Amino acid sequence: MYTLEKRGNLFILTLTGDGQHRLNPNLIGELLSLLSQVKAQATIGSALITQSQGKFFSNGFDLDWAQAAGSEQGVSERLLHMVESLKPVVSAFLSLPIPTIASLTGHAAAGGFVLALCHDYIIMRRDRGVLYMSEVDIGLTIPDYFNALFREKIGDSSARRDILLRGVKMKGDEAVKRGVVQAAYDGEAEVRVASVRMAEELGKRKWNGEVYAEIRKGLFPQLSAIVGLGHKTIATPKL
Hints:
Layout: E1 2-7, E2 10-15, H1 25-41, E3 47-52, E4 56-58, H2 63-67, H3 72-95, E5 100-104, E6 107-109, H4 111-117, E7 121-125, E8 131-132, H5 135-138, H6 144-153, H7 157-165, H8 172-177, E9 183-185, H9 188-203, H10 209-219, H11 221-226
Parallel strand pairs: 2-3, 3-5, 4-6, 5-7, 6-8, 7-9
Antiparallel strand pairs: 1-2
């Protein structure tokens, strides 16, 4: 489950417990509800940090829940349902009127990697945890909005190839070197401190939230279009 805590201007969204934080319809619905709450309560100077407890940030979709359907058709329908359920999460992150940081102290795989990439910045551990897209290894194609997310958020085409076509398990230093994440630190405590420091620094800029969200959507036009977001021009400059 998720918890949401507000510390001053910072929102701290935490995946609790020591499990793999698999994304099933219940967890995705809970996440959407909390993101809606963040959006409603955000003020100038706010920022969001998403973090987790335990070994995993998130190990992707809940394949056990899909397999519990029993039949091949049922499994396929449940997988497609989870894929479609996560799309509004991507839309919600693109629309948030505040800076967002994924604070990775554990593994982020498949849908969990996608969840991390939804944020404006990613900070991860150097000593533990990997980024991994398992689809090529387990025999699943990649949804169109996943592809758009990777294409528009990771500029290095060779990094995208290695992640999506080779199933590379990318550790912190390599992820920084190849432009996938912004920074890597030794240990959980260091990652959390760095995430809060970045969030506070970004919040101090006191940007107009509506403008910030529209610039973000414009920065990722293909992804925004696929998840159904429009884009508008705001002309109220602070001179």
